[in-house]
Each structure stands twice: as structure tokens, then as C-alpha cells.
Amino acid sequence: MSATKKSSRFLPDNASFSYEEFPFYWLARVHAIYSLEMEKVLKKLGTDIPTRRVLLMLRLHGTVSVSELATHAIIKLSTLTRIVQRMREEGLVETRTNADDARITDVLVTPKGEALTDRIQEATKKIYVKGYTNLTDTQLAKLTQTLQVMFHNFSDG
Questions:
Q1: Is the Cα torsion angle 108, 113, 119, 123 positive or negative in sign?
Q2: From CA 34, how far away is CA 52, in angstroms rounded?
Q3: Are the beta carbons of 124 and 35 closer than 8 angstroms?
């Protein structure tokens, strides 16, 4: 059975379609409420979601190029460039020319940025705990796996 035939009831133009069973409806709702919760917590720290994304990527990967940050922080390159400039002015990051390729700008976190990252991690932990309530480790792993498949379906096409 083809993937389209098998999943046809999940296509909006199908007679048996129900938005309550539409995965993208739930993805959008979960993302929206997650973003609202994050914004509330981050606003109290004087920061925002894009800054959090950049700081977490730098914590995970150390020095990262602006283009890599854009990919992994899910922010358009032109927008990320402005965010990094703002963060540099705030003393959260430093930028430097890549030693191997002068066309590449690398970004690294400062001690002030590390301190903010620590505060962000502590303040947002309760959001994840709340979101993961009533889900087993197996369910979370399967959800992640399913979302990765969907991501690759879009990015491979």
C-alpha cells in the first residue's frame, strides 16, 4: 500500500479528514504553547527565544560559524547575523574570522553569555518537565524518531 493511500485520511482534502487527528494541527498547537511558555520565562530574564537558541548551540558545540548557527538554531542567516550583532553588543558573544577560511565568521560565548545560559537552563527546565508529564522515555524517543523522519521527508525532497 502506498504511503499516500495509507495516510489519506490525514490529508485535508479527504472526506474522512478530521483536524483533531491531523499531526500538523497538533505540531502547530504544541509549538505555539511551548513558545508562549518560553517567552514568558525568558522575558523575566531579559532575553528571548533566538538568544536562547544561539547560546544553547554554543554551549553544545563551542565555537560555531554564523551559517552553522543559523541552521541549528532554525533562524534565517540574515536574521541570525543581526541577532549575533546584538548579542555581541550585549557582551554575550564574541565573533572572529575563522582561522582556516577568512570568509567565515565564528561565534563564541563570553563568560557573561555562559552565565545567562545557566540562568536560562534553570528557568526553562520546568517547561520541559511540564511538557513531558505523562510520557514515558519510550514514548518520547518514538516521538523524536517520528519527527526526525518527517523532517527528513521534507528536507530530502
A1: negative
A2: 14
A3: no
Burial of 61 (0-12, 13-18, 19+ CB in 10 A): exposed
**SS3 letters across 26-83:** HHHHHHHHHHHHHHHHHHHCCCCHHHHHHHHHHHHHCCEEHHHHHHHHCCCHHHHHHH
Supply the pLDDT for residue 52: 97
Which residue in this structure is represented by grid cell 517520528? 146
Q: CB of 38 within 8 A of CB of 123?
A: no
> Tell me, what's the pLDDT at 98?
93
SS3 call for 136:
coil
Q: For the chain, which ranges sit under pLDDT 70?
A: 1-7, 156-157
3-state secondary structure of 91: coil
pTM of the model: 0.85
